[in-house]
Amino acid sequence: MLIQLLYLTILPSVLGHGKKVTLGGLFPDNPEEDLMQKTFELSINAVNKMRHTSEELSHVYFEPESMVVTDDIYGTSQSVCLLVEKGIAAIFGPQDEVTSVYVQSMCDTMDVPYIVGHWNTDLSRMKAINFYPHFEAMSMFFLQLVTEFKWESFTILYDSSSGLVRMKKLLQKWDPKGYPVTIRYLGEGPDYRATLKRVKYSGDHNIVLECTHEILEEVLTQSLQVGLLSDRHKIIITSMDLQMLDLNPFQHSGVNITGVRLVDPEDPDSIEIFDNYLYELGLEDLSKMHTEWALIFDAVQLFARAFKPFKEAVKVNVRSLACDGYDTWEHGASLANFIRNIEMKGLTGLIKFDTNGFRSDFKLDIVRLGNEGLKTIGTWNSTNSIEWFPDPPPPIDGDEDLANKTFIVLISLLDPFNMLTESSTMKTGNDRYEGFTIDIIHELSKLLHFNYTFVEQTDKNTGKYNPVTGKWNGMIGKIIDKTASFNNYKKTFIKVIFNYQEADLAITDLTITSDREKVIDFTHPFMHLGISILYKKPSKAAPSLFQFLAPLSNEVWVYLLAAHILATLLLYFIARINPNEWSNPYPCIEEPEALENQFSLTNSFWFCIGSFLQQGSDCAPIGTSTRMLATTWYFFCMIMTSSYTANLAAFLTVETIIRPIKSAEDLANWNGVIKYGAKRDGATYNFFKNYATLKGSNYSTYAKMFKYMEDNAKDVLTDSNDEGAERVLKENYAFLMESSSIEYLAQRQCNLSQVGGLLDNKGFGIAMRKHFPYRNKLNTAVLHLQESGVLSELKKKWWNEKRGGGRCREDSGGTSAAAELSLDHVGGVFLVLVVGVGISCLYTIWEMMWVIGCTSYKEGIPFKEALTTELQFIIRCRGSTRRARRRKSSSNSTSKSEKDDSPPYGFVPAVITIAHEEDQT
Ligand code: GLU
Questions:
Q1: C-alpha distances in Å from residue 874, one per residue of 226, 557, 575, 622, 841
Q2: For a tag site, which of 273, 562, 626, 743 has the least CB within 10 Å?
Q3: Residues 593, 884 contacting (CB under 8 angstroms)
Q4: Cβ neighbour number for residue 790 with a 10 Å cutoff
Q5: Are 677 and 731 in contact (CB under 8 A)?
Q6: What percentage of residues in the chain have a pLDDT greater than 70?
Q7: To which H or E segment does residue 491 belong?
Q8: Which helix (H) or strand (E) holds 609?
């Protein structure tokens, strides 16, 4: 009877007879964990549905008994007691580490299998079955990842000390002599910005972020805000729930985020399970499933599969246990062993336990956040090492998208490129700066949708190469790698102590040079310029005593004198040749003895000068050739006199400017009478240096100038353009400077001006490190700004309008409006003169030949003889009177000598000529 009663009482709960087994679940009281509880119950439902169809399952019906627990230990222990009193086969959860430890100890005491699926470091008691990968394995994985990434230093950001346990092996990597590992506590939250900024300013770009998924999104958002998510940073996120976040805000930041996941949302088996049994959770897809929910789902599934062989092996019941006694479930340990010995594939991959009861042979997906979201780039198996998937084809060099990226833009204060904002209110962030290049960055960011943060190069050093260390300093150095000259340990030390700041882009009056182009990249130039000389504006000269000479250049004066002499001589000779110019001095004597030529040498001179001075003379040419010559000369004189008069008027009204130097050659030749220099180690100084070092350069002026600057470096080189401009104003000093800066200064400081033209041609560009992935996009945008006129508008705004622009516009030139006339101006008049004179000469010769020809024919004298006689007479140049030729009838009575000396002209009046004294020779 007693046996019968006992049988009936126990019957419902005896395994294999009463087919109902209760599974206890403890879940914290928060809405997120609701889904966890629901997953637990859905998993039991799934088992129940399959129990008659699946060979892996027993026919037992599992019933969930879920309880909500808080972090109150007493309340939790009450819940555990209630569960064990009801008679349960195992307890699942809770996820909270503290309560979980307590539940675990109660289950250990009563030998009830305790199953968890969360991160736990306290595994001293082996009866708990944890589906979460063991921390040693995770620690090994992170070590391998960092090693694969070849990180030379990194910072671990953590939110709880227990999380650091997972970093155990990474921490062991720290080596005081060369492998710096920095550990930073994120803080209590919810504001983690202070710590994040510290990491950013430390300059360490490699970060391991170890925090719970609850704060992960907030930490990432704040990191983005402080500029820690830039394309220079590489972050490993240890949480397996990265995929649950909305990653859209971060995926375009350029940051290299690597994550890890246990649940593969693309696995077809997992998708099938999700679609069949978990759709009631209301999640979008499997990627939105929390890893711990997946683990609890798998835990129930595995438990149910382990229960079948257990039930077959141990035909005993689950019984009620009293919490307050020493009551234990004698089969609990063996059920736990069955669970540890079974294998299955679940949502979290292969579920298998090693001899120590830890999950083994599990696989982790390594994911990378890119523009298209998370992408699996490799896998890690706890038995093997990392296996990387083949790389997708890399983007075209320099052609990556900049949208939503954040860049650190390095600037140095220089008017009008980058200046502090003039404002009555306190400005912060990027608003602190304004200027030409600040506007350019703003315009580029509007075009390309990137974000930027300005940082200042306080020493204004654009960058100098040190041939000893092989390193660049200044802005160029920051673009390359600021701590490149130090070993890793010192690097981190320097980064932390000196708050060293690297930059993605640099913009100021940064000149594109070939030396710089070797180590960094530049965009297309956004401004073109050249080296010129900044000097005091030329002063006005007092009127000179010989101001009247100024309208014509010395050269023209000399040519004028020469023309005058030539014209005088030609007139004299042409007049002697031309028979018409020999006239009867006494018209009342019909046949004069002598003929006279009015164009003696003195008269010719007087005629020329009289016409030049527009006073005329008593001489009037008679012959065609002399008239021709006179006409040309008159024309020449008229043009020259009018030009002179007009230019003299200009010279008398405009004051003359004194220019001590007109070009770089003057500076070089004067050998330091006027001191000159440039900005130390700037592009201008290097321009001269290159000339000096250029082998075989035969252009010695610039080499000479460099030598002077080098020899007097301390005295003549300056640290900034402002210092140079100040010296120009105060001393007898010329500053070699870039024309754009000279133009800006000359608009505002009316005592300064540019001297001479440009010594070279170059441009300012935006600097970036070599092979910067966004170079092409930036180049295109710069060209677009140029073509759309934005750059010239900005130039006008900052050069001519803002901050006193155009002040010196009225008086800007400082140059004289009157310029002396050079040969270039009046050369044409001289040419006309030469042509006119030439024609007149030719005509004279022709005329002479004709007349001599006629005479020799008429008088029977050989032509040659007549010509020789005439030429002799002309060349002899004796006086301006000659014997007139007699008529033919009386010619016989003339003496021989008379005959010899008479000109052979047939038309000479037929007078009896008395030989003149001088003609008788
Ligand atoms: N723009 C120059 C540079 O990039 C600085 C000024 C100069 O050398 O005149 O170094």
A1: 103, 31, 10, 18, 14
A2: 562
A3: yes
A4: 18
A5: no
A6: 86
A7: helix 488-498
A8: helix 601-612
Burial class (CB in 10 A: 0-12, 13-18, 19+), 70: middle
HSE of 792, CA atoms in CB hemisphere, 13 A: 5
State residue 327 phi and psi, 5-degree precision.
-65, 130
CB 81 within 8 A of CB 41: no
Three-class secondary structure of residue 66 per DSSP: strand
Burial of 874 (0-12, 13-18, 19+ CB in 10 A): middle
Report the C-alpha gap between 327 and 320 in whole angstroms: 9
Angle 575-579-585 (CA atoms, 0-180°, nearest 5)?
A: 85
How many CB atoms neighbour CB 127 within 10 A?
17
In angstroms, the Cα distances linking 401 to 224, 373, 439, 505 are 18, 15, 21, 16
Under 8 Å between Cβ of 29 and 66 = no
Query: The tokens of 226 are what?
Result: 């402080």
Q: Residue 865 pLDDT more than 80?
A: yes
Tokens coding 728: 């120009």
Reported as a single tens digit per residue, the pLDDT across 738-752 is 999 999 999 898 888
Q: What is the CA radius of gyration of the chain?
A: 53
CA–CA distance, 669 with 658 (Å, rounded to integer): 18
Say how far apart CA 64 and CA 304 lie, in whole Å.
12
Residue-wise pLDDT tens digits, 579-599: 888 887 777 777 777 788 888
- For the chain, the residue count is 921
Per-residue CA distances from 154 to 73, 253, 256 (Å): 39, 20, 14
Residue 890 in tokens: 């009386």
How many whole angstroms separate alpha carbon 872 and alpha carbon 864? Answer: 12
Note whether 492 and 180 are within 8 A (CB): yes
Closest ligand 1 atom, residue 513 Cα: 4
Cα(822)–Cα(829) distance, integer angstroms: 12
Of residues 200, 242, 208, the one with CA closest to residue 225: 200
Strand 349-351 relative to strand 344-346, pairing: antiparallel
Residues framing ligand 1 (Cβ under 6 A): 462, 509-511, 678-679, 682-685, 737-738
Residue 168's nearest CA partner among 115, 208, 126, 200 is: 208
Pocket mutation for ligand 1, best pick of 457, 476, 509 (most atoms within 8 Å of C-beta): 509
Q: Which residues pair with 14 in a beta bridge?
A: 317
Report cis status (omega within 30 of 0) of the bond before 309.
no
Is 304 in contact with 50 (CB distance < 8 Å)? no
Q: Which atom of ligand 1 is nearest to the CA of 511?
A: 4
Partners of residue 11 on adjacent β-strands: none
Spatial distance between the Cα atoms of 896 and 548, rounded to a whole number of angstroms: 59
Which residue puts its alpha carbon closest to atom 8 of ligand 1? Answer: 682
Which two structure tokens, joined as six digits, stand for 286? 């499997």
The confidence score (pLDDT) of residue 358 equals 83
Q: Which of 684, 759, 760 to mutate to test the pocket of ligand 1 (most atoms within 8 A of CB)?
A: 684
C-alpha 409/C-alpha 507 separation (Å) is 7
d(CA 582, CA 324): 161
Is residue 52 a contact partner of residue 117, using CB atoms and an 8 Å limit?
A: no
Q: Which atom of ligand 1 is nearest to the CA of 462?
A: 10
In this structure, are residues 770 and 519 in contact, taking their beta carbons and an 8 Å threshold?
yes
Two tokens, residue 519 = 């180590």
The 3-state DSSP class for residue 376 equals strand
Atom of ligand 1 nearest to the CA of 686: 8
Beta bridge partners, 767, equal: 506, 522
How do residues 212-236 score in pLDDT, each as one tens digit?
A: 888 999 999 999 888 888 878 899 9
Strand partners for 24: 65, 91
pLDDT at 396: 53
* Total-model pTM: 0.52
User: Which residue's structure tokens are 């949302």?
Assistant: 265
